[in-house]
Amino acid sequence: MKIGKIAIASLLSGLLSACGGHGYEGTWKATSDNAMLEKLISQSGAGTLVIGDDFIEANGQRNNVDEIFTRESGGKQYLVFAKGEDEQTFEITDDDNLEIGQMGVTLTYKRAD
Predict the structure, then answer these.
(1) With contact defined as beta carbons under 8 Å apart, do 26 and 98 qualify?
(2) Predicted confidence (pLDDT) at residue 88 exceeds the cutoff of 80
(3) For 15-45, what is each residue's pLDDT tens digit?
(4) Concatenated DSSP letters for 34-100?
(5) pTM given for the model
(6) In whole angstroms, what is the distance from residue 98 CA to residue 106 CA?
(7) Of the N and C termini of the chain, which has fewer Cβ atoms inside 10 Å?
(8) Residue 23 contacts residue 97 (beta carbons within 8 Å)
(9) Is it the case that residue 14 has pLDDT exceeding 50?
(10) Coil, helix or strand for 33?
């Protein structure tokens, strides 16, 4: 009986650990639809973004967030980084591409790993 309980507990903990994360963890590389910005990204060596379970790391600086989750709004999917009352969103175009638009320029982050 004890072996059965241990097996069930192990199975449940395995299932729960598989449910963690948001599916977008990893390294992402930036590209742009703006030629000047694209050149600046490639020359500076910037443009790499690391997304973890609860952090974003860019240019050697790690920013911890309270939560990373996905949200659907207006028929589009978004990856949301929430810290306190503030939120930063990236549009999810597919599993390997995230987009963020600011001041008329769009940056596309492509999954690198």
Answers:
(1) no
(2) yes
(3) 333 445 678 999 999 888 788 878 887 777 6
(4) SHHHHHHHHHH---EEEE-SSEEEETTEEEE-SEEEEEEETTEEEEEEEETTEEEEEEEEETTEEEE
(5) 0.74
(6) 10
(7) N
(8) no
(9) no
(10) coil
111 closest CA partner among 91, 97, 92: 97
Half-sphere exposure of 113 (CA within 13 A, CB side): 11
Contact 81, 109 (CB under 8 A): no
**Mean of pLDDT values over 53-74:** 93
Tokens of 16: 């729960």
String of b and e for 19-51 (b: at least 16 CB within 10 Å)? eeebebeeebebbbeeeebeeebeeeeebbbeb
107 forms bridges with which residues in the sheet? 32, 100
